[in-house]
Amino acid sequence: MATTAKTGSPHPDNTHPESPHPDNAHQAPSPAVRPRASQPSPAPPALRPGQISRLGIAAVVVTVVLWASAFVGIRAVGPSFSPGPLALGRLSVAAVVLGLVVLPQFRKAAAFPKGREWWPILAYGVMWFGGYNVALNAAEHMLDAGTAALLINVNPILVAVMAGIILKEGFPRWLIIGSLVAFGGVAVIALGSGQRSTADVAGVLLCLLAAALAAVSVIVQKPVLRKFPAAQATWFGIMVGAVCCLPFSGQLVAELQAAPLPATLALVYLGVFPTAIAFTTWAYALSLIDAGRLAATTYLVPGTTILISWLVLGEIPTIWGLVGGVICLAGVALTRRRSRPRPVMTAAPTAGSNPGPNPGA
What we know:
By secondary structure, the protein is mainly α. The chain contains 14 helices and no strands.
């Protein structure tokens, strides 16, 4: 060991000439000279209540656009595929595509449902992926697009009511107001539709059935997303729906052999994008957002469908379609508002009065 500082030497033997603390190497550095790297980095700001992350917003946008494109796709393949085979074809393609993403995850962590965890998955798999798709495909063979869009968009109101009662999400004032405004926009789109065919009673009932099945499925799926990731929860439901549609397999094979190539490619598109991708992004958004508020965003689907039809099929939207789309946008924007809490009024203490106990005591 070298000599200590008691010798009075200005440069002790054990000190490096470049050392900033020649004779106090054993002392901790003062706070003023601590390296900045040792200070903890500030945490990212937390989201306020009701605020949605960017990924959540992106998931909603993807869902709306792809579900809107499904209406165009169903109209395109309608002459080539019957309702049941069309549903089975979509689900089969979606099961394969999404399975390539989901199945490798099970090697890292066993995430298969067990016991009673299967019951809600079986429920929304049968109702949404099976029953809803078959009912909607059949309804669009009987109803014009405007009437079908109006009837299907009863779904968000049903979801808002059931979410308020079953999921205890309540009935926020702006959610109710925005839903009614958006529903009015859908009504404007439907009433202004250029197609004036007579709606078959069976088609109306099928469309209402599809809306009810979708609404119940949203409520059933919400708790499942607390246990399983969105992709897995979606894949489980798709597999259940595909099994339900297996009775249509023989008819699907026959129709695939007779269908033109564009119709077959459109069927594949329906399976990959509006089914595998859109239902997964929907499930992801549902895991982040209240069911009632998320369902209100589907009011954007009819207006988006008109825009896609204009770009893809060359169908020029009517003035009623444009006005209705703007009203839908305004309604969805209203559902995102939150009522301000009323301030609690307290009387100011008078001179000599006891102010009560000290909160900090």
